[in-house]
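Side project, low priority. Logging it here so it doesn't get lost.
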Amino acid sequence: SHSFRRIVFTFYLPSTSADQTRECVEQLQLEDRVLCLHSRWRILYAGLANGTVVTFNIKNNKRLDIFECHGPRAVSCLATAQEGARKLLVVGSYDCTISVVNDLVFSGSSDQSVHAHNIHSHDRLQVYGGHKDMIMCMTIHKSMIYTGCYDGSIQAVRLNLMQNYRCWWHGCSLIFGVVDHLKQHLLTDHTNPNFQTLKCRWKNCDAFFTARKGSKQDAAGHIERHAEEDSKIDS
């Protein structure tokens, strides 16, 4: 069971009095603090401190869906866009990632990546990396994703759901939209730069490296070649 906290926004009727007093129409309750709000397509999107996005029907305030985006990291920003007939929800978070949903949902967070999910099935479609700090804000313009980071940098990356690079490291199934972002993921999340021994855990590979042989550069090059040669999948 979840403990509920009162949501930080309320619905008000327009003021008709001289003192500008507004009548509270309704207050909603959610599982955690609300850090950002966005509305489009008659849906209200609330980004929570627990990393989820909760949606409401604006007409009747009925709760609709919950998107698991960046938990336990907080959602910091929300945006929407449209790619042809597909509607996109973009979610930013302090964990440096972005997620995409088809009728897409994008989320950015402090894990320095962007994720794309399908808005109906909630399946994760793609990941975009390349950030060096927490993603604080995000917007979508046409086919470009623009993200602002805590370190003051701004990054622009082109959205292309027809280009997919899969991580085949043991236990990982992330799919990236840019091959360089996959390389960064492999070297950052799956290897330790101070390793004494390293066994490549890419699918069907049993290469082994040791620091004593001065093979750290060889290990990095080996892993990057997997990304370049063995990761592309059909869309």
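Brief comment: The helical segments are 179-189, 216-230.
Revisit when time allows.
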